[in-house]
Design a protein that fits this description.
Layout (H helix, E strand, L loop, with lengths): L3 E2 L4 E2 L5 H4 L9 H8 L7 H4 L14 H16 L4 E2 L5 E8 L2 E11 H6 L2 E2 L6 H14 L1 E2 L3 E5 L3 H10 L6 E4 L6 E7 L2 H11 L5 E5 L1 H17 L11 E8 L4 E3 L1 E5 L7 H8 L3 E6 L11 E6 L2 E7 L14 H11 L13 E5 L3 H10 L5 E5 L4 H10 L9 E3 L9 E2 L3
Parallel strand pairs: 6-11, 8-12
Antiparallel strand pairs: 1-5, 2-3, 4-5, 4-10, 5-12, 7-21, 8-11, 9-10, 13-20, 14-18, 14-19, 15-17, 16-17, 16-19
Helix pairs in contact: 4-6, 6-9
Length: 416
């Protein structure tokens, strides 16, 4: 069963939140972070992307960069740009995208739950990315950005949340870049805190939706701190890491699409002919080509859109991995026809989140940068849970969650 606890969040004052908050560290590069921060010294990018304080050519993995994160984090607290709550609290975090709102709880999740499988994973992590985040957590001694969890819908949690969202939120703003609304309500009432903790103790599993590397780094640093503390008791803050838990039914997963540089020596006509061995192919316009069900795909090639529908009998629906559209497209298109066997390392392929739309796929191809684009039907939360429950791992670049969590609304310090 899941173990969570409230914590004394470190947060910006209400009048500074829009100056401090930022996009997550891993959705933009250093140049974008430098541009977005501009001359705003209060931007959280100075802590989560501190390479922006150095000359452009400075590596984000330079030891000085992690030291700068520590210095900037201290400065933000000394200047009062981040202030710690006086009591342990939970927080309700609401995100509204295209008229749909999802309500999450910001909690401290147990490192032990990650290590023993109560917190379930569906993606592989890369050790180099884990190590980067571990260095950052060590340097700041804090979880600067939350992990994104899903949990099975629970009407009792919903009832508590419903009461709070009738009141005025502590934060309420429209974020730049994505244009989505973000709101936050602290939960300081002890009865409600105890009730939330009790309810989650009956929930068997939590599921990582986004933030596998942050989860791994937080858990590994927590384990390190235990080993280094001869007086370890088990209730220290480093035994927990920050997460936002959303009911699974509220989450929106967008398509995660592929663009490829060449056709592996085939002409467009030869490529379409080879595709017809496994797919029904129908020319369409951009609007009509959008996949409306599993095992449908949209192909953009030579200025034309094509709907691809997998032939009957080619998907093993008893296999939760093999039946995924990301697996089918990898096996029958990317590997079989294009010779792309490793999505993580092959330089001929790139990935485009569904929020960018089919216009971005057309742009990448029409510019000559890429030869073709393949759009997929989004993975469902039910598929993710099924795979996580089976202990299997999804193929890379399978899920794209929107909206992304904003960073800097709440920070979890690993010691008081």
């Amino acid at each position: 069963m899941a173990t969570i606890k409230p914590f004394r969040g470190l947060r910006p004052p209400k009048d500074l939140v829009e100056l401090v908050e930022s996009r997550p560290y891993d959705v933009l590069d250093s140049a974008e972070a430098r541009a977005e921060a501009g001359d705003n010294e209060k931007s959280l990018y100075h802590i989560i992307k501190p390479e922006i304080d150095f000359p452009v050519e400075t590596s984000e993995y330079d030891p000085r960069v992690y030291e700068q994160a520590t210095n900037n984090f201290r400065k933000f607290q000394e200047q009062g740009w981040l202030c710690q709550d006086t009591t342990e609290q939970y927080y309700i975090y609401a995100q509204t995208m295209n008229g749909k709102t999802q309500y999450g709880l910001v909690v401290a999740a147990a490192v032990d739950d990650y290590l023993n499988g109560v917190i379930k994973k569906h993606e592989l992590t890369r050790r180099d990315k884990e190590e980067d985040r571990m260095k950052h957590v060590r340097a700041t001694n804090a979880n600067m950005e939350p992990v994104f969890f899903a949990y099975p819908d629970n009407k009792d949690v919903d009832a508590i949340v419903a009461r709070y969202i009738e009141s005025q939120p502590e934060y309420d703003f429209i974020a730049p870049i994505d244009g989505f609304r973000h709101q936050l309500w602290p939960i300081a009432n002890q009865h409600d805190i105890d009730e939330i903790t009790k309810i989650f103790s009956t929930i068997p599993y939590l599921y990582i939706a986004d933030g596998h590397h942050r989860s791994a780094a937080a858990a590994l640093v927590g384990a390190e701190k235990r080993a280094q503390n001869p007086n370890h008791q088990g209730d220290e803050e480093y035994n927990y890491f920050m997460a936002v838990c959303f009911p699974s039914s509220q989450l929106t997963i967008l398509d995660y699409n592929r663009v490829v540089q060449d056709l592996n020596g085939r002409t467009p006509e030869q490529f379409l002919t080879a595709l017809s061995d496994d797919f029904d192919i129908e020319m369409s316009d951009r609007v009509g080509v959008h996949p409306s069900a599993r095992h449908q795909f949209a192909l953009y090639l030579e200025g034309y859109w094509y709907r691809l529908t997998l032939h009957d009998g080619l998907s093993d629906e008893t296999d939760p991995i093999a039946s995924l559209d990301v697996s089918i497209s990898s096996q029958l298109v990317l590997d079989k026809l294009l010779g792309i066997k490793d999505l993580r390392s092959d330089k001929r392929i790139d990935f485009v989140g569904g929020l960018r739309g089919y216009e971005e796929l057309e742009r990448r191809v029409d510019s000559g940068e890429m030869k073709m684009a393949l759009a997929l039907y989004p993975v469902s939360m039910e598929e993710i849970i099924r795979i996580a429950d089976s202990g299997a791992i999804m193929p890379p670049k399978a899920t794209w969650f929107e909206p992304k969590l904003r960073s800097g609304l709440v920070i979890h310090k690993l010691s008081e």
